[in-house]
Amino acid sequence: MSNIDTTCVNAIRVLAADAIQKAKSGHPGLPLGSAAMAYELWARHMKHNAGNPKWANRDRFILSGGHGSTLLYSLLHFFGYGLTLDDMKQFRQDGSLTPGHPEYGHTVGVEATTGPLGAGMGMAVGMAMAEAHLAAEFNRPGYDIVDHYTFALGGDGCMMEGISSEAFSLAGTLGLSKLIILYDSNKISIEGNTDIAFTENVQARMAAFGFQTITVEDGNDLDAIGKAIEAAKADKERPSFITVKTQIGYGCPAKQGKASAHGEPLGEENVKALKENLGWPDPDKAFSIPEEVYAHYHELAKRGAEAEKEWNELFAQYSEKFPEERARWDKFHAPVDADALLNDEEFWSYEDKAQATRSLSGVMINRLKDKLPQLIGGSADLAPSNKTHMNGESDFSKENYVGRNLHFGIRELAMAAMANGITLHGGLRTYIATFFVFSDYMKPMMRLAALMKLPVTYVLTHDSIGVGEDGPTHEPIEQLAMLRAMPNLNVFRPADATETAAGWYLAATADQTPTALVLTRQNLPQLAGSSKEALKGAYVVSEAKDAANMDGILIGTGSEVSLAIEAQAALAKEGLDVRVVSMPCMELFAQQDASYQEQVLPRSVRARVAVEALSGFGWGKYIGFDGAVVCMEGFGASAPGPLLFKKFGFTVEHVTETAKKVIAANR
């Protein structure tokens, strides 16, 4: 290691320690221990250009151990990504570009929001899948325009979390050789030495998954780290897992190798001792970086600019030689033409017969696959049930990366993380699927998608007690309320073919919001009054005979809209005139202006009944104190679906009686 390399590695450590100390909050252990491997990677082995952080062929880097964010911020600062010294001084402060954990879309150069440990590992696998697919789609002999690596750095915590095993198992099966994991192995977690809860042979596990495993004994040996990265790149058949043995809190005499270095500032005296131990000039002064450090990083950064220049020349030649492929490339990377899809008669057409919305969703997927060549997706081993297979398209596999049908295996949590990674990579739109009740497994990564504003589509079928014989373990009850509680997630439960098309239109054209399509197993009738108004989240699907003097409003979603319409007819026979509102998406309705909301749900009509075969939690906003719900009050049961709907009160008689009581109480 040259003197300037040593100084530049230590600059990362010192800057990270100073930022954490000023904030009086943070995690210094990882940045101090991992500084050398991060420096070696970014300086000599990773293609990246601060002048164009979104360069399509850049290598991706994810700090899966997001608590060590000052490591990433220091790299971004030194390599010229726009983070200033003042930004570093504002670490963990309100509105700063240096929040406690890295946030995608907030700080330039951050490739993914990493908070929950292991999430970054799953997203890295998704990025590597996207790279492999796009390379298979677009590369031509002599023109490898998609040719980059995905690097992820994480520690013992990331390896303990189950999501990592789920994701790495599939990565090995798929032979994603452009995926390289750097394992910061310091054998320390918050509670102490990892031996108290984590004694497995991690390398053996990774080898069993199908990874090349490499070990670097000294985490400060830049030459050994560099050789390990090059060995990882040389393996064209397997992803690689590099164990780098480090010391948490390296360089701080009182904290090095101790659990106390993990999640608390070193303390002013210990920061000074760190600097003295590292031979840092002026150890009493915070945020003092020698000019030679910046000069060296500036020189290193030129390599990335030169790499992009070479790629731009190659891409220009590619575009000239393969103009049709260039046109496809542009379509893959462009927003979906929302107007064209909205006015596409074939997309909105349907057969006038009863069908399950999961089946209708399958029709939509197969209509979209030709209109959106960038669409790729699959299921957690449930494609035949979820109806998510793209007909005529091959399967994505180690032997066939051009395939568009993804097989995630029974790995819902990692599947959702991989979908995030595919979307973050760019150039692709993705959907994933499972039974609605198993959205519980997916929820943490759905939350990250919403937080990152990623337009991932979730196909969630078997949406109620209509599941039937599988019983309460498979019948979702509280899941709809759970997802509706999440900010920036459109939860869409369609009632028929038109509404299902509307849900897919919403999903396919979304820019910054993920969409959950909540779909039935059982057949539903096509509704005469359904329309594209569903895109407003709620609309009048069946009007009262005298809207100006109606007696009440029935509000339904999904399979219960037709039930509400039947109840409307029954009430009419008893002289009660009610409106039926379909509300497939509460989130969209909440975004409409007040006049439209008043038009659909007039405040003067207080007699309202919501009908939904799931938990009633959350309906108070629309029925008020004077309304009522016909919803599930407990878990389901194991019996045929039609019997369960009767058992739990989803009948014309019960809805009618409930409405009559509410109307009477409001007179």
TrEMBL record:
One of its GO terms (molecular function) is transketolase activity. Keywords: Calcium, Magnesium, Metal-binding, Thiamine pyrophosphate, Transferase. It catalyses: D-sedoheptulose 7-phosphate + D-glyceraldehyde 3-phosphate = aldehydo-D-ribose 5-phosphate + D-xylulose 5-phosphate. Residues 355-526 form the Transketolase-like pyrimidine-binding domain. Thiamine diphosphate binds at H67, G115, P116, L117, G157, N186, H262, F438. The active site is at E412. One of its GO terms (biological process) is pentose-phosphate shunt. The record marks H27, H262 as: Important for catalytic activity. Its cofactor is Mg(2+); thiamine diphosphate; Co(2+); Mn(2+). It comes from the Bacteria. Mg(2+) binds at D156, N186, I188. It holds the Pfam family Transket_pyr. It is an enzyme of class 2 (transferase). Its EC number is 2.2.1.1. Substrate binds at H27, H262, R358, S385, H462, D470, H474, R521. GO terms for cellular component: cytosol. SMART domains: Transket_pyr. The keyword Transcription regulation does not apply. Binds 1 Mg(2+) ion per subunit. Can also utilize other divalent metal cations, such as Ca(2+), Mn(2+) and Co(2+). InterPro entries: THDP-binding, Transketo_C/PFOR_II, Transketolase-like_C_2, Transketolase-like_Pyr-bd, Transketolase_bac-like, Transketolase_BS, Transketolase_CS, Transketolase_fam. Signal peptide: none annotated. Homodimer. Catalyzes the transfer of a two-carbon ketol group from a ketose donor to an aldose acceptor, via a covalent intermediate with the cofactor thiamine pyrophosphate. Belongs to the transketolase family. This is Transketolase.
